[in-house]
Amino acid sequence: MNEKIAIIGVNGKMGKWFANYFHKIGFEVKGWDEIYREMSEKQLNEIKEKFIVKAKSLVGAILQTDYVLLCTPTKRTPEIIRLIAKEMQRGAYLIEISSQKFKTAQTLLKIPSRVNPICIHPMFGPGTKNIDNKNIIIIPIKDVKKELDVIKLLFPKANFVTIDAAEHDKKIAVILGLTHIINIAFANILAKDEKISLTEKMSGTTFKAQKIIAESILTESPELIESIISNPEVRRFAEGFWKDVGKLLTDTQEGKSEEIIDYIKSSQQKLSENIDLEKSYKKLSAMIKAIEK
Fold it and tell me: CATH assignment of 167-292?
């Protein structure tokens, strides 16, 4: 490929991941990041990814490029779309990857017709070595077939799920929002443990797995975590979770063993309709065994 892609937010973790990805498949990569404003020429030249053509401005980055990829904070993405779409060349593709889609999708609908909008949510992080069988969610904006064809061309080895913006945000509220809330609260408990070494020595498979997940989430920037849990749809699920926690605690205090057992059995039964729980346990054991090698 001899095509050009501009990555806005190229100095962030996902920006760097996509820069490397597109460079490897033959794209000329231009980049722009807010932090460039604060960097000297020497500091810019010391950036590891030497192949990135560093633009001198946001608009300068997107001129005469075939694709523009936004790796920008969720809350700022609609504003950036409005700013750059009118400057992009005819036939170019504007791709955004934010974790909340409702407002972003509405903004993409309003961009000039000469620019092709693409709204995706890559369900992997910057530690991913390759894209094989990784999930990419696509939110249709104007022409679902055209948009899906382009994404399949750019990421041929990925898996794709198509869903509308509103439903995406509801599902992501559980997939990312609730899991992040649970794990940052769990991490905060661990942070207060003055004898964490002893806790770790005593721990079994379940604790080890949960601790690794919580710690890995904390490698994300606080701003990213805040944007994930600020999804308006998260509140409903989090309140339901807290309500269940409260009931379980009350039932234990009141000695209502049967109600607790019934609650657990109900969850087991409902999940077992679609999942082999025994296989899940074996996977957990295998995962921890592999980590401990």
Answer: 1.10.3660.10
